[in-house]
Amino acid sequence: MSRPTETATPMDALLAILDLEKLEENLFRGLSPQVGWQRVFGGQVIGQALVAAQRTVDAGRYVHSLHAYFMRPGDPSVPIVYDVDRIRDGSSFATRRVVAIQHGKAIFAMSASFQYDEDGFEHQFDMPAVPMPETLPGERELREKFLVHAPEAIRRYWERPRPIEIRPVSVEHYFSRDKLPPTQDVWVKAVGQVPDERHLQAAVLAYLSDMTLLDTSLYAHGTSVFDRNLQVASLDHAMWFHRPCRMDDWLLYSQDSPSAHGARGMTRGSLFDRSGLLIASVAQEGLIRKKAIA
């Protein structure tokens, strides 16, 4: 395991980050990108923890759900150790618990369940009717057309090279301070090739599931995660993997926030492929606290 080089593409860097080093049975180590962030991106920890759990299950079992808690900010300057507890291996399902450790303390804990593929009942909600990603401005066009006069924090967010491209159906919430409905639809796509391997595809999907989600809880209040007067952080994260999905095309991430209370915002998301198949469902609660004014 080595830290991704600066010349690697963003997707190459992500795949390297997800390729954990095995230290001992049930014990793995992962690195973070050195990009100047003050804390580790939550999606990275989810993805790495899922990889650690996957490496302890039998071939043919695939993740169908995970439930996680963020307990401390991750330090990007030091490795993260993932300790996997093999809770149960049943005839159909296997359960794993993963604890992520830095500086001798737990920063994150996750339970995940794995299952052999089975046939069964089929139904799903319909995908929202939204414009296709090809009709929307790409990130380069967004930078050139909309970000010239945008606040610095927003410009930095969109100018940073990332392994996932984002195309919002609407960009109104990035620039408006009006109180808007707490919903958004965002097309997301891997920038570069993800190997055709279900465990790795699930880890990349888990990584991107933490992108843009908590933002939705702030739109009803005329603000965003870029507001320097807010303290914003993921508290917990749950994800259900309904159907396998290749990562070589656009996915629609449809999100809403049913509630905010007690300095916490709750958000939900549904990930659909282009044909309208529901790939995964996500739920998250995050801290959205106003900072004390000195």
Automatic annotation (TrEMBL):
**Domain Acyl-CoA thioesterase 2 C-terminal: start-end pairs:** 162-287
Transmembrane portions of the chain:
none
**Gene3D superfamilies reported for this sequence:** Acyl-CoA thioesterase, double hotdog domain
Please verify whether the record's keywords include Lipid metabolism. yes
State the Gene Ontology terms under molecular function.
fatty acyl-CoA hydrolase activity
InterPro entries with a match to the protein in the record? Acyl-CoA_hotdog, Acyl_CoA_thio, HotDog_dom_sf, TesB_ACOT8-like_N, TesB_C
Keywords of the record, alphabetical order, are: Hydrolase, Lipid metabolism
Question: What reaction gets catalysed by this protein?
Answer: a fatty acyl-CoA + H2O = a fatty acid + CoA + H(+)
Per the record, the coiled-coil ranges are none
Q: Which Pfam families match?
A: 4HBT_3 (PF13622), Acyl_CoA_thio (PF02551)
Question: For the Acyl-CoA thioesterase-like N-terminal HotDog domain, which residue ranges apply?
Answer: 37-115
User: Is Hydrolase a UniProt keyword of this protein?
Assistant: yes
Top enzyme class, one word, equals hydrolase
CDD domains given for it? Thioesterase_II_repeat1, Thioesterase_II_repeat2
List, in alphabetical order, the GO biological process terms annotated in this UniProt record.
acyl-CoA metabolic process; fatty acid catabolic process
Its EC number(s): 3.1.2.20
Please state which protein family the record places this protein in: Belongs to the C/M/P thioester hydrolase family.
Q: How does it assemble?
A: Homotetramer.
What is the protein name given in its UniProt record? Acyl-CoA thioesterase 2
This chain's source organism reads: Sinorhizobium saheli
